[in-house]
Amino acid sequence: MELLQLLDRLNYHEAWIGEHHSGGFEIVGSPEIFIAAAAERTRHIRLGTGVVSLPYHNPFLVADRIVQLDHMTRGRVMLGVGPGSLVHDAMKLGIKPADQRRRMNEALDVIVELLDGKSVTRKSDWFDLQDAQLQLPCYTRPRMELAVAAARSPTGSLAAGRHGIGMLSIGGTSPDAMAKHTQNWSLYEEQARLNGKTADRANWRLVTMLHIAETRERARENVRFGLEAFRRYFRDVATFPIVPDDMGDAYEFLTRTGAACIGTPDDAIAYIESLLAGSGGFGVIMELAHNWADWPATQRHYELMARYVHPHFQGSRELRGGSYEYARTHHEEFVGQSAAAVQMEIDRLAARKVAAE
């Protein structure tokens, strides 16, 4: 919660909160509850479910809750969905992993119709809707922003393209991962075209991993705090290891392979530029909120990102730089004009004194 408040003050545009029910590290069980509290503690930042695991919920209730949040936040909420990434979450609910992606597609089709104001009658082996229609329209018109998580499986990109909604590329940004993300975007474009939707790279969000400090040495020292615990979680609990088992040093692997950036603001700029070039372009760069560093160093990381990295890509300092350069190159001319104007007033005052005498 304190992180979201910090990001709001630093003018970050959005934050996405996930849903997990086991594993001991990712401990938000309801992103909707978390967002409701975060919305009261922030002013500007947009808040998304990143993601609601659709197979775990009746789709009518998902749509109803997100519309309520849309009104409570006055349009700051976004709905991100996925099939659920932790197998043990699904097993606790008696859901077979093989059914998760099918269920996500079935639920998403219903949710999109409900958010569009339609009445839905549909029966599946896990839900039964009879003349289901929401009581309230979305606060955001025509509806709030929607996105589907996409990692290694093509399911997310196909679903997002079918509905013409956003795609959240998760699973890292190593060269291998980027190849899969780019392939998924191609699938998105194809599905969008087949369904009469327009594919817009502005709707593509890419999730990467960063930690920066004033020097590379300090950044490396900072991540000693939690990088190994992070590595163990993704190796022992999550469904895919970010750092392979046979790699002894997580820092060396992440920085050498380009799976993450641990360095300075300049390193972060170069890293993001390489992702833009390698992907062909995307709309939003997102950071995975990890605990590699302790809280003070983590806060400093986000401050450095906001101060140096974001302006580079947003072009927010270009006019300031141009204004400074114009004033600098005309400095002698302007100083001369200013001195002449001052001397003119001095001479004018002296002339009035002489006239008065």
How are the SSEs ordered, and which strands pair?
Elements: H1 2-9, E1 14-17, H2 31-41, E2 46-53, H3 59-72, E3 77-82, H4 87-92, H5 97-115, E4 120-123, E5 128-132, E6 146-150, H6 155-163, E7 166-169, H7 175-194, E8 204-208, E9 210-212, H8 216-223, H9 227-236, H10 250-257, E10 261-263, H11 265-279, E11 284-287, H12 295-314, H13 318-329, H14 331-356
Parallel strand pairs: 1-2, 2-3, 3-6, 6-7, 7-8, 8-11, 9-10
Antiparallel strand pairs: 4-5
Helix pairs in contact: 2-3, 3-5, 6-7, 11-12
What brief labels describe this structure?
TIM Barrel, alpha/beta, 357 residues, 7-stranded parallel beta sheet, 11 strands
Spatially, the strands of the biggest sheet line up as 1-2-3-6-7-8-11
Task: Give the domain tally.
Answer: 2
**Low confidence ranges:** none
**Structural class of the secondary structure composition?**
alpha/beta
In angstroms, what is the radius of gyration?
Answer: 26 Å
**Main β sheet profile:** 7 strands, parallel
Q: At the first level of CATH, what is the class of the largest domain?
A: Alpha Beta
Please trace the helix and strand order, writing H or E for each element: HEHEHEHHEEEHEHEEHHHEHEHHH
Assign the CATH superfamily of the largest domain.
Luciferase-like domain
The general outline is globular
Helix content: 40-55%
Number of strands: 11
- Return the CATH topology of the largest domain: TIM Barrel
The average pLDDT value, as a whole number, equals: 96
Q: How large is the share of residues in beta strands?
A: 5-15%
